[in-house]
């Protein structure tokens, strides 16, 4: 394979990996920021409109809360219900929301930084792979 083609392939791969690292880092930063500086309120867990009581609960129900300026907000839960932490209809959960954008919500005690960390680790591995690809191409030249 031509050295220029390998360099282009390595550059595109590294760019994709860096995007994944940035996306994971941004997600972690936003969650920490909202948890630290957001407004804490109790939110009511609700079924989605049109869902019958006999149907199984959706993995991400609605959370309804009142903001500081007395607006009623309904947002989809940022975390899914699990066996360990079910989000049953009628339950109350503690959430923090961003006053500038009340749709940005963090559910306390149920945050899952795993997906963001996986993006960071996966992106770093892709960047390392692209650098290794470039180094092997240069060394074999």
Give an overview of the whole structure.
By secondary structure, the protein is an alpha+beta fold. It has helices at residues 3-37, 114-139, and strands at residues 39-46, 62-66, 72-76, 92-98, 101-107. Strands 3-2-1-4-5 form a five-stranded antiparallel beta sheet. Helix 1 packs antiparallel against helix 2 (114-139). The N and C termini lie close together (10 Å).
List keywords for this structure.
141 residues, alpha+beta, 5-stranded antiparallel beta sheet, elongated
Write the layout of secondary structure elements.
Layout lengths: L2 H35 L1 E8 L15 E5 L5 E5 L15 E7 L2 E7 L6 H26 L2
Antiparallel strand pairs: 1-2, 1-4, 2-3, 4-5
Helix pairs in contact: 1-2
Order of helices and strands: HEEEEEH
Strand order of the largest sheet: 3-2-1-4-5
Q: How would you sum up the major sheet?
A: 5 strands, antiparallel
The radius of gyration over CA amounts to 21 Å
Terminal CA distance: 10 Å
Strand content: 15-25%
Short description:
This protein is α+β, with helices and mostly antiparallel strands and 141 residues long.
